[in-house]
Every structure is written in structure tokens, then in C-alpha cells.
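The freezer alarm interrupted the setup, so I double-checked each line after restarting. Inputs confirmed:
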Amino acid sequence: MIQRLTSLAALILLFGVSSGLWAQTISVGGTVVDGDMPLPGVSVTVKGSYAGTATDLDGKFALTAESGATLVFSYIGYLRQEVTVANTVSDMKVELKPDVAGLEEAVVIGYGNQQRSKISGAVTTVDIKEATSIPVLRTEQALQGRAAGVQVTQNSGQPGSTQTIRIRGLGSINNSDPLFIVDGIPSGGIDYLNPSDIESISILKDAASTAIYGARGANGVVLITTKKGSRGSKATLTYDSYVGTQEPWKYMALLNAEEYATLMNESRAAAGLSALPGLSDPASLGEGTNWQDAMFQRAPMANHSVLYTNGTATSSIAMGASHFSQDGIIGGDKGRFERTTFRVNSEQQAGDRFKVGQNVTFTNIKRNALAENNEFATPVLRALNIDPVTPVTRPDGTYAYTDYIDSDIVNPINQIEQTYDNWTTNRFVGNVFGEMDLTPNLKFRSSVNVDLALGSQKIFFPTFDLALFPGDPNRPATEFREVNSLIRAENKWSTWQWENTLTYTKEFENEDKLQVIAGYSALESSSTSITASRDSLATNDPTYAFLSNSLNVAPQIPRASDGISETAWIGQFVRATYDLGNEWSLMGTLRYDGSSRFGLNNRFGLFPSFSAAWNLTERPWFAEKDWIDFFKVRGSWGRNGNAEIGDYAYNPIIVNGLNYTFGSEQAQTIGSGPVAIANPDLKWETGEQINVGLDADFLDGRWNLIFDIYEKNTLDMLAYVPNPGTAGLEPGPSNVASARNRGAELAVGYQGGEDDFTYNLNANISMYRNEVTDLGAPVDSLNQPIFTGNVFGSGDFVAITDIGLPIATFWGFETAGIYQTDEEAMADTAQANAVAGDVIFVDQNGDGVINNEDKVVIGNPHPAFTYGFTAGAKYKNFDFNLFLQGSHGNDIYKGMFRYDLNTTNLPISALDRWTGEGTSYDTPRVTHSDLNQNNRVSDRFIEDGSYLRIKSLMVGYTLPSNTLERLGISKFRVYASANNLFTFTPYSGLDPEIGTRGTLEIGIDRGFYPSPRIYNLGINVTF
Amino acid sequence: MNQKATSLTWLAALAAMVVVLASTGCSKDFLNRDPYIGSSAGNFYQTADDAEAATIACYAPLQVEISDGAHFRWYFGDIVGDDADKGGSGDTDEPDLLEFENFFGDPSSGIVLGEWKTAYKGITYCNIALQNIPGIEMDEFQKLAYLGEAKFLRAYWYFNLVTTFGGVPLVTAPLAPSEYAQPRATAEEVWAQIVADLEDAAANLPEKSAYSVSATGRATRGAANALLAKAHLYQGNWSECRARCEEVVGSGEYFLDPNYGNIFTEAGENGPGSIWEIQYANNSGGNWGAQFWSEGTYTNVFQRARGTFAGYGFNLPTQDFVDEFEVWEEQIGPDLIEKVDPRLGYTVYQLGDNASDWGQLTEDATGMQSQYFPRKYFNPASELAPFGDPNPNGGSNDRVIRLADVLLMHAEACNQLGDDATAMASLNLVRSRAAVPTLAAGSAAGAALLDAIYHERRVELGLEGHRFFDLVRQGRAADVLEGFIPGKSELFPIPTAEITLSNGALTQNPGYE
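Predicted 3D structure, all chains:
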């Protein structure tokens, strides 16, 4: 089939060329080489025409052209070369030179590519080949530490848990997630991708680069392309596989049973209570149960991935499949993630002017999840808080319950066993596109993109009973369930998009180059869900957990509910780039975006940007310096939007409850109307950013450096602001607040060695300073700070978002040690209930009362800087890679102990408690009667969350090719790798790499599911 | 390549672009998305039921009393006037109100803020109804009635605002956030809007008799005419006032309850002489007035004596007010009997009185030093809320306009127009119902008659929230009220927070800057 199409295409090509009657036609043939090595797959095009071909396996090419035509030879990784031909020639020899510094590398930008040397915005690319040479569990991980200005944090270490990506700080107090574009398709999340399918990742960081995405670009854009296969290449089949094992790498130091009993007795004594029966002889209890040890386990993971690529002179194809599975180090398959992907990408030249293609992927995700990231129901929290006196199981093998702590703290091992929370997602993402060369300079492209995801969730709550004996009256209500129940939910997210672009490219005689792209994009997306629940299922076997197996025929409330939401978009855009020779590159973008999310008065927004790059290498002073290969400065300004403001937000719900009493019977009559204000002005949040950068290569391209500084202002940020009375209703969201991020990024690379030993070193460092600059009230005194991050153990919110502070700054009481004597405590009237051993809170305003007015900034969850470092080396057939990643200067709020419950286990630091004058100056006494609220939100719970982590370490060996060729194998590599091998941190919790929970809860540890240490063995085979 | 191919190509490209633009070209419709679940402004306001619900929503804010600061009609009408003292547990109980009573009220007080915000809340629901109901396909007669109700209520709120604050922002359609910071309109502009709204309402509202008993409390043609008469009265448009009063009286919809005392009982609510009342129920459970679900009033508990009466002891009648009631001697048989205007007993409780089933008012029982207590909104213990918290659940309606008020407005207008005979006739209707001697024809004329009418207003409508505003309107406030500062005290201050939030678009009233 492909051959037939190929010959058809060749025919059309011939016909097309022969139709040029007025010029003399010549045939040109030859070989393209790098030194002595023939280069297959080199693109050979005739400048200013449709004609073109690619070199074959021997590097040979042949085509016809007009006399005097210019042939353009281009190949990834090599400098482009142009040759003018006057007469027929059959043995032309073209030698391409490697592009050591990657100056001609085509970097994917919005709606197109640009030569790296011409880029004027702030675009970072991730070396995906290097990143995926070691196991990458999910695509977001490939960005962490490898792209300056990009901060990736995990929301949990549980397999399949989402990761948060922040580009250049927090763009908004509402939603700071970047836009993901995969092969031109806007995708909500990228967990469906097989990381080894990825060809390139570009991160658009400044507003000039993202302005072409208009109202959706303000938080940055992650552009991903998948592997396409290339024309004229030979068929290859690649098999990548690894299998590994995961393990926990740290336990928190907690009290053992003896210590626990001692402190509990002391705590009860302080409240005038006698020791509990089981705890009265602490020494007899010994070590007791190590719940963390009982909870954590080794867990397997494995990945298999196959990719086939092939190309003819007129077509290319890539098809692949993969399967990834990972069990959890908590709960094993109860917290499992499984991803199966299929992909077909192809494109075909249909005649000399038409090209059609498609990128299609189907992904099946199965996830079993344990509760994470809260202080009520997660196994981690429970394992940290449950007393060490209670055994996991009784002698008869049944699970034990604790006698000492009630409510939320149950036996975590039994909890895991009783959890059945299963997600299945089937997702189809793909597009079909056609391209047509209208003239040699003008190309039309139309693409229809579809993203359809179907998600099913099933949560089954089986019956269980941890009774010591039948009818045991002492078992807590949370340790048995008498009626089982089931929740089933079906969700559908669907998006279609139609995009059309016209691209005009003109190269002038003086090497100036103009490119204009204009486009039109329409998008509609919707999400629907239906949820139903029943109880009293016939069996406790989760296999038969279906609603229809319920034996309960009585009406159950609520039995079923559903939801639906829609969004529509229309975008129009134009971008012009003009290269003045090699010295200047200018770019201007305008996008006009409309969305159903915006109020009627602001349905459309205009997003302009401008950027320029000045290649100083062309200036004499630089040209004279041999050691400078390339030196470019660039600057950009742009404006874009964040449209993640929710559907229908401008259009508030009508409430039925504005009632009135009429009639002699005083009957209530239902009135209806909005309670919150409709805001027809509601619009996107505006991002405005200035970026100045520098790209330089030194010493034969061995050194390269990229430096950027920026100021990013988010204006029109949504907030709720007190309204004048004339507004009449409660305030709705309005575009009034603003925030600022200022930052700098530096990336330095070095490539060294030669022949048998080569190596490269890459380091990057990023910093941002975030500040809320306005919350919208006309005067500061009317501002309403936003309090977030309620931590139960401390009984209050721990984060504040207010003017002059970074978003979600830790906010609480400053402490000044411990009252050593009752006299000292009595003397301080601000803390009326304090006695010796209690915490001294600082009365900041000196009004003689400790209250909310005395709260101050107690920590900053934002890092001073984050950094990454990679070292790669090759020696003969061995390869080696080391990847370090770290964060410095960020604080963590330790909210993983439920002090409100009085009898939970405690960190080992509790042994340093105050027990008498001079015994402790930082840790208060233990007491069941904490009238002073020693555990209220204060700097006592703030810890430095800095860390440096050996993210991965890998050694690989490639078998000598001559031994393999007989087997039809062109490459065979084996490797061993380790992830999260070592972590250096002062943080005492399980894992310092704590992500966010919503935009405004950063760095709060509620019993964080730590990421595992992983050992893998893998092979890469290419046939 | 040839020229033909090129132009064909261009044609194809053009056609493609046209198709693209046409398919999504109606971008306005394509981008219009309304929620499917719950009602939104987009899919509500479609049916006659929606119109009814939108109209009810206009009434709901009438019951707001505590949110954004406590405010009651009697706060300013009675206490700032000379009919009552603040009362309460002492000077520190609602201290803002004491400051207003003594004419140095604080612009940042929650009392003015509550008054302001509640009025605009009410106006906003009226504006929403007026904007959305016209487009609904339904019975046109009913539609006009709904619109009339909304206009009546909007006029009611603006009447409160203009008499309290003077010229205020005139908002007649729902505002976009960019429009919130409205400057003040002149008082004349506000009055003009009130008159226009009420004229419309009067033209389109049904008479009281056209409503079923289950709809009592809705705005009627009579209510619109009565409020319109009052609007004209406040502006000194005597002939318009007179005409509207005569429309009310001539409608035959209302008559004076022969027993004055009936009016302020639970059974007397919405009685024959009642033109419009704010309805309160004692059976909603109560929610502390924060929202505007159907609910009762705090007036009952605020005005009940303290101590064993379990009230807050506000709005204590002054001696001056008590003294206003006529005392005369009447020859009954052989005896010359001293008679007192019987309305005094229905308006004011005195120490020693038995206050219905609560028991005798004594200093011991109340723990207060007051000689007098308000009676009009006094509720017997048996009428406390049957469940829930009784305090936010008083059942007494607020008698906003009564026929006696209309008759006295009529008398005043006629007097001002020089028709003293008609004036006296109306005045005597009120006096005779109250069982006080009528004035003999020709016994008073001109200014003397006007004084008699002023006196009658005070005693007939005492403790119903009229006094202060009457005094200001009559130009007598400075003479009558101690501490009143002419040029300042006629109006209350614009709430400070509102001036701040308006970004300076609002200006403060003179004397409060």
C-alpha cells in the first residue's frame, strides 16, 4: 500500500515538476555524507518549489530541478547546507557538518518550529533522550530538575498520583497549572502519555512565547511532540523494558511503646488523671509495634514498550505500544497504577502539494488508590499517630484495634485491606491533519483534534469487624462496618478542536526571512458525570460489587446524581517573524480569544507580544574572539491570559430561598433570584511578562549558557472583594487582584572528552520571588486576606495569602520558649491559662492578649532556589548518568500529628519535653489538659524543607554491534539504575519533596506518602 | 506551475477559510453556554412561575433587620425623633444609636450601613425582576401586576433612602461590577423616580380586593397610591398628594377599624384600615436575620421590657410623647370625668400596667427605671414562636401605611391648599374613630388647623416610625428636637465603608465629613 502511494506520489511529483515548462530541467543526484559515513534520511528540497526527496540508506538521492535551482540539505543534528546546481549531475557529494552547539536545531514553539539560534523568547527544551534513558515513571517527571524555571512537585508518592507543574512561580492564587499541548492538541494533563513515545518537550516560559496561546498561556505552556518516524529512514523496531523494585528509604523516628506509655501517663497526670490500665507499667511494654514497618513494603514495577518506525521518500510512520505497572510501597496492589498505551503517528505526501497525517493514541489507565494528603483517613497519618502499644494483629491473626485513641486513628493495616477504590480511564487522544502548499511560499494546514476520556470509579466499602469477641462492646465505631456499600461513578470528558493555519514563508535574496502564520481555532469541551450508590450488597466480594446486587430495596438517599459542564472557545491569531540576516530576529504575535467562560462584556480578549533577539556573534568584536561561538541577547514583552476560572463563573446560580410570608396563614412563599453577583465583566486573569535573556556558546560549542531574568505580573486575578451596597448582592469573583513573580534562571552545559570517552555536564538553577500585590479592595483596610491550609492537629489555618506576602505564606504565632516556672507564667497576663512547661507565645502588638492579631509570618513554603544537575558519560560501550535535583530554603509545616486527639503517638523529639525547670527551652510539657493551646499554629511546627536528592544514577552497557548484526539487532543495551538513591535534608518527616494540595496549600505535611527508592534493570533493543 | 493552478489554489484556500469561519462564524451563539443543572440567569426567567418567584424575591429583603448592622424603621422614626428614648440595658447597649439620638451619629456605624445595604439589596431584586420579567411570555395582565409590585417596592426603598440620606445613587437596572461606584443623584432625581415608579405601580396593580386572602401583604393599587401620596406630601406637592389620597379613600377598599386597639393585635394584622404592612411570621425557626429566608421580626424582643419580660427594653416612650395625648374633662352625669386619648393606652404601657400574659410591669420585674414602655409591637407570651429561638421570630407585622395616615395626609394637603373644611372632615374621621372629641366646624383654620393635624399625626401614628421624618419634612425638627443641628441633622451620614468602596464617587452629607 505504502509503495503504491509512494509511486503515485512520485508520479505526481514528476508531473508537477514537468509542468514547469518555461525552464530547463536538469537531474541531480549524489550522496550526502558526514565524513565517510553516508547519511540516510537527509531532506533534500528545491528552494522555492514543492520538489524534494530524502536520501536513502546509502545516503543517495536523485531529483529533478530547474537549472540554477538551490538545493537545501537538512538533517537533524547537522547544519543546513545550500547548493546551487546549474547542470545535470549524478555524483554530487555533499558533506554535512554536525551542529555541535545545536544552533540549527529546530525547537518546537507554538504552531511551528524555530531555529534555536533565532529564538527570541524564553523557551526551554528538555533533553528527552537523556531524560528517558533512565526509567521515567510519568512524563511530568522528565521535567523535574531538567528545565530551568520549571518546578515539579508530587502531590503524593503514591503510584499514579498527579504532579504539580509550576512555570516561573505561582501565576495565580486560583489556578497556576500550565497548558499542555501534545502534537497540537490541548490536553488536560499528560498522564496518558508513554514517556518513551516523546520526541521533544519545549517549555514556553515568557509571555511572548505563550502569547500565541492567548487566554490560556499565562501559566506557561508545555509543548510535547511524539515520535513520528522520518522519511527515508529504514524500518526499526525498538523494545525498551525495565523491571524494578521499590522500597521505603526512611522511617520517622517515633516513640516506642515504653516511651509512649511514659509520656501518656505523664500527660494524664498533668491533667489530674490516673494512668490507663494497659499503660501503668511502661517498662514492661518494650519496643512495641513499629507501624511504619508494618505498613511499608517492597513493591514491584515494570515497563515494556515497543516502537516501530519506518519511512519512505514520501511517508513516515511510528507505531507503538507500552505497558507500565507500579505497585505501591504502601498497600501493594491497593495503591497500584497501570498504564497501557497504543500509538500510531503517520504522515504521507499525497502529491507534491498535499500532506496528510494523523497522531492517534489510546491509553488505558487502571489505578487503585489509597487516601492521601489529608489528616483524617490516610494510612500514613494513621501509622504515624497510632500508639505503638497496640499490636497489628492478635495472636489469632485477626487485626487488633487501639484502646487508646479514638475517632480517625484506626488500624492502618486493616484500613488498607478494607480499601477498594478503583479508577479506570480509557482515553483517546488524536488528530487528523492535512497540509497543502498553496504556493511555494504559502502553506495551509487544517487539523481536527479530539480528546475523549472515559473514567469509571468504583468505591466499595465491605463489612468488617475488629471485635475481640462477638459483640465486643469496646471496639470503636470506626473499627467495624455492619452494612457494606458501593459508590459507582462514570465520568466523560470530551474535547474537539478544529484548527486552521496559513503559513507564509519568504526568504529574501539578502538572507532576510519572513514568516507569517495566521490561524483560526474553535474548541468545545464538555464533562459529564453520573454517580450512584447503594448499600447492603449480597456479598463482600469486591468482584460482585455492583449496584444491582444490592439487597436493600428501600429508597436510599442520595441514590444518584449527575453533573455536566461545557466550555467553548474561539481563537484567532497571527504571528510574524522576521530574521534580518543572521543578526536580528524579530517576532510579534497577536491572539484574539473568546470563551464561554468570560462574561458577556468581555467575551473576547486581545493578547499581544513582541520579542527580539540580537545575535552578537555577527558583530566584529565577537567575531574576532575565537572562543566565542555564539552570543545572543534577547528580550520580550507580552500579555496573555489564564482562563482556568471555572465554567459559568460569571453567571451565578439562581437560588430558591428568597422567601416571603404572605396571607393570613403566614405561609412561606418561595422566591428565587441570584444571591451572588453576576459579573458580565468576568474575564481571564491577565499575565504580563518582561523577559531578558542571553544564550551563548563558547570554546567550540563545548560550553553553553542560557540565562534569563523576568518579571511576571498577574493582573485581573480573581478574588472576592467587598462590594459597595449599590451592588445589592454578595460579591462574586471579579478580576481585581494581582501578584508578581520576579525570577532568574541559569542553565550551563559542558560537553567534554573525545573518541572513547565523552561526557557532558548540565546544571540549572532557578529562583522566583512571589508576592501578592493587590487583593482588590479600594483601600488596604478593607482587604480580606485568604486563609487556607486548615491543619487539624493545630486546629487552624496555617497559610495566608495577603498583600505584600508570597502566596500561601505560613502564618501563625511566634514562640519564645517555655515558661520555666509557674511564677514566670503567672507574670505573663497575656496567657492567662499558662503554667510552667507551657509555650510562650509572643504578644506582637503588646495589647496584653494573645489572639489572632498576634499572628505573624512564620515560614515560607516557596524555595529560595531550585536546581538540577546531570552528569553523563560514555566510555567505549559503557554509559553512565547521574541526576541530582534539589530545593533550597523552603519551609514545611509539620501537620502530621493529631495533637487534638491527645493520645496519639509522638515524634521522638517529644522525649525532650519540659519536665521541670531547666529541662527544656523549646518543647512544652505533655498534658491532657492543654489550656494554653501549646499546639496551636506556631513556628514550632515549621521545619526547613531544603533537600538535595540523587534522583537517579544509571550505568549502561551497549553490546558491541558486530556480534549482534547477525541476529538482526542493531543495538542492544543493558542498564541498571536507581531512583531517589539518597536524599540529604534537615527535614524530619518522611519526604521533603512535598507538593501542593490546591494552589494555596503548599508544603503542608499531613502524613505525606513518600516517594520510594527504586532499583531497576533494563534493556533497550533496536532491530 | 501555471497561473490557472495558482488561482485555483487560492480559490480553494479561500473556500476553506470561508467554510471554517461559517461553521463557527456565529461565534456569539457558539460561545453562549449556560449551566444545565440548577437555574442560572440564562435559563431562569422563562415562565410565569419564574416571574412569580422573581417577584417574591423582591419582598424577601423587607425582612432583613440584623445583617450589616441592626436597623429598624423605629430606630430613626421614634428614637431619633422625640417619641422615644433608646432604652436597652444602658448607654453601652447599641451606643451608636444613642449617638444618633443625640445628633452626633458616627458615619461608620453599622446602623446606617445596615439601612443602606438592605435598601439596595431590595432595590437590586426589584431591578432584576424589572429587567427579566418583561421578556417572559405570560398573561400580560399578571405580568404588569408583577412589574407593578417590583416598582412599588423599589419606590419604597428609595423613599426610605431619600428621607434618610437625601440624594443617593439612583440604580434602576442591575449593575455590572465596573458600575458599582455610583455617584449620588440629587434628592429631586430620586423623588422623580419614586413618583414615576409609583404612578406605574398604581396604574397596573390590582386593588386589595382582587387578591385572595392568601396573598395578603402584596403590594396593591391602594398601597401604591398611598405611598405616592406620601411621596408628594414629602415634596409639598399638595394637590397631587390630595388627589392620590382621595383615590385611596374613594376606592372603597379600606375603612377604619372602629376599635383602634384592634389594629396592633395579632388578629388585627392586615385589617380593614391596613394599606400595606411588612409581613413577619413567628413560625420559621429563626436564623438571626443574616439571610432573608421567611422569618419574624426582632422588633418584638427589642421593644419588650427587660427582666421577666425577656426583652431588650428599647424604644422607651418619652414623657413628652405621653404628654402629647389629649386630656380633657367630660361631663358624664353629675361628674366631671378626666378623659385621656384612648390611643395612649394602646400605644404606651405605664409602670403598673398588666402587660398581657407577661404580668405586671414593675421596676423590679423589668430591672429598668423607665416609666413607660412601647405597646404597639408588644406581643403576648402566648404569641412567641412555637419552636426555635423566639427572639428573631417575632410575629408582629410592621404597619407601614394605614388608612388613618392617608386621611391625615389628606387633611394636611387640603389645609395647605386652603380647603380647611375638607381637611377638618378627614381629621375628624380619624379623631372620631379614636373616640376623642371631633373639632367643630370652623373651630380651627389655617396654621392652627395644621398644628392640630400635626398633633393628630403624632398621637395616631405614634411609635410607628414616622415622627422624626415628619418633623424634618414639616421644617419643625430644629424647634422640637433637642440637639438637632440645622443643615446637618436632617439627614443621616452616608456609611463610611460605602464612601471608601465607591472610590470616592460618593460624597458625605454636610456636617458628617
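Quick read of the result. The mean pLDDT of chain B is 89.
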